Amino acid sequence: MSYEDPRKMIYTNTAPPPAGTYSQGIMAGGFLFIAGQGPFDLEGKKCPDTFRNEVLHTFRNLEEIASAAGTSIQKAVRLCVYLLTMDNFKEMNEIFTEYFQKPYPARTTIQTDLRGFQIEIDAIVKL
Fold it and tell me: What is the pLDDT of residues 72-82, one digit of tens each?
């Protein structure tokens, strides 16, 4: 009896490579699970300087991985947002309403000790 792994790894060189032992994305059960992305370029260096630009660059990285799986971040059903400070919550929320259309993805926002950047987002996207 053979076992077929129901998961498929997604990797694209148009988004930053993983910084550890994890995949950029995994497809399983009709969904794409995208690992946390931040405002980093293809060499893993922090890009934008303003919070708004960090959010937009993070969305770009998420979109690149979603696109590699044949979907779009616009089909996200769940996002988890990690913020360095909740002082950025209002601006982050405003940017989300510009970027996503209703129905908005379910979302959790958590303050955490990010080092050298202000936002990270992971996502679950419908294929």
Answer: 999 999 999 99
What is the domain partition of the chain in residue ranges?
A: 8-126
Buried b (16+ CB within 10 A) or exposed e, 21-54: eebbbbbeeebbbbbbbbbbeeeeeebbeebeeb
Quote the pLDDT of residue 112: 97
d(CA 52, CA 109): 16
* Token pair for 75: 């089909």
**Token pair listed for 29:** 């059960």
Pairing type for strands 25-28 and 8-10 reads: antiparallel
Average pLDDT over residues 114-121: 96
What pTM was estimated for this model as a whole? 0.94
Q: Could you tell me the fold of the domain covering 8-126?
A: 60s Ribosomal Protein L30; Chain: A; (3.30.1330)
Structure tokens given for 13: 């060189």
Q: Which 3 state secondary structure label does DSSP give 2?
A: coil
